[in-house]
Records
---
Amino acid sequence: MLTPTRLDTNSLYITELLNNIGVDVVAKVIVGDDRGELESCFSQALARADLVVFSGGLGPTEDDVTRETVADHLGLAMSEDPDIIDKLERRFAARGWKMPEVNRRQAMVPAGATVLDNPNGTAPGLWIETDGKGVALLPGPPRELRPMFERLVNERLQPRASGLRVLRRVLKIAGRGESRVEEVAQPIYARWREESPQIETTILAMPGPVELHLSTRGSDVAAMDAALDRAVDQMATALGSDIFTRDSRSIEEVVGELLRSRGWRIALAESCTGGLATSRLTDVAGSSDYVERAIVAYSNNAKIELLGVAPELLQAHGAVSEAVATAMATGARERANVEVGVGITGIAGPSGGTPEKPVGMVCIAVAAPNNGAVDAGYATHVRTMRFPGNREHVKAFSAFTALDMVRRVLIGAPVNPDWIKK
Amino acid sequence: MLTPTRLDTNSLYITELLNNIGVDVVAKVIVGDDRGELESCFSQALARADLVVFSGGLGPTEDDVTRETVADHLGLAMSEDPDIIDKLERRFAARGWKMPEVNRRQAMVPAGATVLDNPNGTAPGLWIETDGKGVALLPGPPRELRPMFERLVNERLQPRASGLRVLRRVLKIAGRGESRVEEVAQPIYARWREESPQIETTILAMPGPVELHLSTRGSDVAAMDAALDRAVDQMATALGSDIFTRDSRSIEEVVGELLRSRGWRIALAESCTGGLATSRLTDVAGSSDYVERAIVAYSNNAKIELLGVAPELLQAHGAVSEAVATAMATGARERANVEVGVGITGIAGPSGGTPEKPVGMVCIAVAAPNNGAVDAGYATHVRTMRFPGNREHVKAFSAFTALDMVRRVLIGAPVNPDWIKK
């Protein structure tokens, strides 16, 4: 886990289960198989937390030192557990092998520790209670760690949990950069500092959405819920239709539900996004109910043949223009015979930019029923954006913003994100 | 980064660059935006390491506390840097905005610190030398952190490093699961244990490729290079055309270069992947030279109208069938008038599976010039796969495998990956 190639996913799983029972994770530490480092981390963790969870380092080899380090630090003698030896021997025998001698180390148990059964591997886990604190030693492979940790949570941690709970709400915001969210949010959450239960705020920006996390901790769940509801309402009033979800849904889920509830279908015409917007939409299970088709019209030919974009339009305005985006959205909608059409054309970079049409400039058009009613004809909305970042970011921003524009058009909200080119 | 949803990727990048100049990473610590926790970690890190690198917490908002915490702990006064203010103001002005007052915090610099320019964002980095040790404060977003850290390594860390180097080679493998790579690789790398310089091996599996990492550490770079070359050759002989790159390229880059070198263009017809294969292909800069178009034919109608799939074929075999995949590939190729066509149709799940056509079953077809020559007519290659995992995994596996099939067809390699349905 200290190499450049290993992503730590166990800690996400552990965090989720702990948060669910109101346990806050205050720190995560990754160290090598080094007794000195490990012991120093363990001692610091014990000093500041009530629960310390190890994952990994329980294997049979000499570089697996977690068991010994923890026992030594707590001053617990170790002895071989005949039950574990028995299970290990049977496990190997089932494969027609004799247990290698090295595996004997996995049967060493510190005095007073509870052995956690591992049906999916050789390393049993350990649970130690010391000075009112809990220490869990879990194996590293996720398929061994997960069921073991789940049982530990249900049988031992949940009953000890303080009764304190952490409640969290996530608002996801489109069309504003991080600082323009902060500008609006800061005066609001500054007022919450004096209130009880106290609400913590975190702002997270990614290429596309900005997330506003509100959380509160305590035991009076009803009061906490009510406080969070009030807080969310205040933010919602301030940020209006820029908030696309209050319940952790992705933009593609939100758009999918808007389409589904209207019984409408969508067709997309993508150029610079290369299929990314449609791929996002189809990440949602059941999206085949409302995604009819998409055309990735990378060439001018494809725009003309498959979307009916007039060659004169391409000639007069260039492929990256509001006129062509509009023609793409309309062509996609009409040819697929669906209610909603999207056209995306832009310059993803790194090359292809000009002073007039720089890298990051993207035109997005949405064609949809006028005033939300199919019999009132169709209207087209088009905007030119200027997104920051490299090719990958421009693609991600463009796909996200196109889906957000569909959302805004469907709910009748103004289409005026931060990224619009002045 | 302490929530259940945020994967830490910055530390991998930082580790890689540090390893390259022979610097070992002894610990990684993740803490919240909490001054107490942060200060306690900082003080411990300073005690045991020569270099401490922070990422994140330099934003404009009140929960960004890294700058203040580090300055306080080192007893350094902070003052506003007029140059930073100037850059920030110009950055906002370029977008037609006034700098929000909150961004002023980003211009605070501890006494004696060097400001690290951030061309990709508002937060400048900081470099502080203290008691012969180095402390780097870097912004969290990868596209801001990476170029800044690269410069820091080249200009300040490399000259201070020990001279020991870590060299690494990465082989990327398609069409084999992790254990089928290990089966072939293990007898080879077992032999390396006795050799010097010693080569370490790591196998990493993801939804699609499997990576084989070979690394060695020492000071004799020529001998290390030669040893790695020999090792790579032995693996390449054993794994043959399943290796799609020896130099860290992605499958979409490899396919792009094969198309470009032949002057060929490609058109895709995607169903269950929803545009993901085309989005991957167009992640590569310059891909508009060879990606002509794609049709995301989610509905049967779209398959019939846009790809010329015969309704009788859909009726007789169902949309997920080798016959329909083949018709999609051929239709895409012919209608776009290009050399290579791809058809992907499958069941991404979670619903829609049947005992005969279960979730994860995907048919992939590639139509391309016979024997690599355009004048020899066209041939179609089709396979039915069975991929593991959830909707996201099936999409990722399918898009990856479709691109790998294009690669195999273009280089005349056998199309027989592990995932083929028996």
Note: Residues 10-160 of chain B form a domain with the Molybdenum Cofactor Biosythetic Enzyme; Chain A fold (CATH 3.40.980.10).
---
Amino acid sequence: MPGLSEFELIETLLKPLAVNAPGAFALADDAAIMPEPLEGHVLVITKDALAVGSHMLFDDPPGDMARKALRVNLSDLASMGASPVGFFMALCIGRDTKDRFLKEFISGLAEDVERFSIPLMGGDIIRQDGPFIVTITAVGSVKREDVLRRSHAEPGDSLWVSGTVGDGALGLLSARGQLGTLSARSQAFLSNRYRVPQPRVETGLFLAGLVSACTDVSDGLLADVDHICKASGVGCRIEQDAIPLSPAAKEVVQSNKGLWQTILTGGDDYELAFAVPAARGAAITDLMRTGPIQLTRIGIFEPGSGTTLVHADGVGVHWEQLGFQHE
Amino acid sequence: MPGLSEFELIETLLKPLAVNAPGAFALADDAAIMPEPLEGHVLVITKDALAVGSHMLFDDPPGDMARKALRVNLSDLASMGASPVGFFMALCIGRDTKDRFLKEFISGLAEDVERFSIPLMGGDIIRQDGPFIVTITAVGSVKREDVLRRSHAEPGDSLWVSGTVGDGALGLLSARGQLGTLSARSQAFLSNRYRVPQPRVETGLFLAGLVSACTDVSDGLLADVDHICKASGVGCRIEQDAIPLSPAAKEVVQSNKGLWQTILTGGDDYELAFAVPAARGAAITDLMRTGPIQLTRIGIFEPGSGTTLVHADGVGVHWEQLGFQHE
């Protein structure tokens, strides 16, 4: 049992994260009062859980674990086009969780509370006999008519993605020492992409009201685009050669083409994938030039269902060559 | 690893719990949209975590665990005077969690979703190497000027409590077989009070805008009244003989006066403790006569700080006689 009491944790370490939320009452009441939404805005809420050993490695820096736990939720808010309002956290302190771990965890969290202007508004602390687990519920705000959904992509809309794809899943392999021949620099880049996602909050705010469907790439590009297809009742043709890879990911597939499978299905990228109606192409091209992050057109939605992977010439990709098992 | 996939859990078992929340999009989007609050209302949010082995016993019925997890959150909403809007749930499936456990858990949850009209709006499912853990975030709605806080009790206000006190903590002793000499009927009553709390949602709605401070009795009567005292900057004199006990709890203290300590500090009661200004006494007396649950006046707030326990004649209680250790 760590020496830090729940009282000390709350009073000393967590209360400072709540100062910018008057409705959190310094974490001293039974519940928090949410600020009233701006005129015409609605609140959106998302909740994610992460366990050490499952979603974070045992030797990941505790501060990075905290930032990941918050950021995967921020990524969900971004994919709805919402700006952060506040969050709630349950710390499930484990059998072997040390005081030092908790201090570093909360200190990493404090950095992101500042960086993303999202105050802690409440939560719970329990002790239990398993690994350290954290669950976070994040609240965001978005204009009602601008909410981004998965369900409104139309045939003819183009498919775009922010940033680069595949780094998260390759980063997990790298952090586990499974990409041994890769340059140290690329290893460090990829591991960091796995440990500390960059939620595309600003980009999501820009896309709100502009694009027809949006999701974040958390389950893997193919699966997440398929979520849009299913929700919208359309199909999608993705051009493999157009998928943006980081220099490190390019280095990986140059030596092992089979790792394309990891790139396409591994997930943990926390980029945004979205559908752009033809009439909105110019606005997106502007954002591509001036916005905070690279945006790339990688496919087109079409009548039908399911996701097809093609080369630039439209010829279907041989899945086996990308590391997929023959079914 | 249980045979139920995450997909099956969501599609088959959880989706039906979301049908009454259009903003939950059948649990198929990245986040949920909260309904717009009624004119003049605000949303309140609370979050609690429970682990098997810490907050629930390994052999508690899984359906009861689910109901407890939801109800401790409903109790927090009740203590703010809020009516339930929806909830988010993270299921952290453990090493030894069986499919049958999950089915019974969700089936118990479904009963309370119906009973308290609170739809599931989102969440997450993870697998991890520890005990089964569930965290729930509940959202409620209350008129802005009626929100119940801990912080507005005044000297001269009387202290009231709903239902009976001490059953939760005595119920844990009973469920663990530590109240062996008690009648079987009383054992069953107390265990049930521990396993399935009765959140005082209706009473909370009635008290909203009427009483000066409110909290739920989760940490133990003395600690929770002390929370009101600290937040309000007042003291409180509690009349021990006025504290309402169930027949089962009376049976317990008749044979062992030392268990008064458990009654006063054990917690897990999920009753409401609240401060009533003199001018509102008549309204509370009316509610006492006609409301769904017994309400009892047990003390008075006074200038100063801290909680004092007295007999009916005002003489201080000898703590040692109630099972407290001499400090």
Note: The longest strand of chain B covers residues 41-51.
